[in-house]
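Example 233.
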Amino acid sequence: MTQNKILIVEDEEDIREILRFVLEKAGFICFESDNIKDAYIKIIDLQPDLVLLDWMLPMGSGIELTRRLKSDELTAKLPIIMLTAREEESDKVLGLDSGADDFITKPFSPRELVARLKSVMRRTGVVADQTKIQVGELTLDPASQRVIIKGQPISIGPSEIRLLTFFMTHPERVYSRGQLIDYVWGRNVYIDERTVDVHIRRLRKALGTEHSQLVQTVRGSGYRFSTKLDEVG
Ligand code: CA
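Predicted structure in complex with calcium ion:
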């Protein structure tokens, strides 16, 4: 099972939902965005392994974002698959000229989508990161979806694992409840901010008294995963 991260940039919610469904089923972790400005922030913040990018977006096209990403050293190697509703050959050429690594025309078959995605990943050398994540005495094994503290697997629910995976790969930064909903569960899932607090409580409980303080409340802002003691308390 792969754990590669895909950013889906698509303004049509139903298509985004289908893409997420198909890709999560294929074992990918998905993030979503509906415009290029937000997509750019998420690319820098969340460091996806591949971007699935719609051509026609409301505030600047997918081509624009591709050019920006490919011209910046920091993001030039990020594989991009362009999604488009148009089939004309000229569009295809334009898309590939912009630096997109591949092209998928809507409507697409789920099987084809996953196959193309994997082929671009192979070609561009993106390999699923199955490395265990270690923070202090905490080890998270993405392959088995287990959390181990001092050699003992702990009892933890699927939502809390997702939340913890995000925290452990993005430590020492404050995320608002809204950002956590967006990054951990995605926009298509209806979760209110109080539910985030519930999952945070469960996560702390699962981590136990000794490690619960890794998940810190930052008053007025949100939460932070940190091995440093919270100065505010
Ligand atoms: Ca669109």
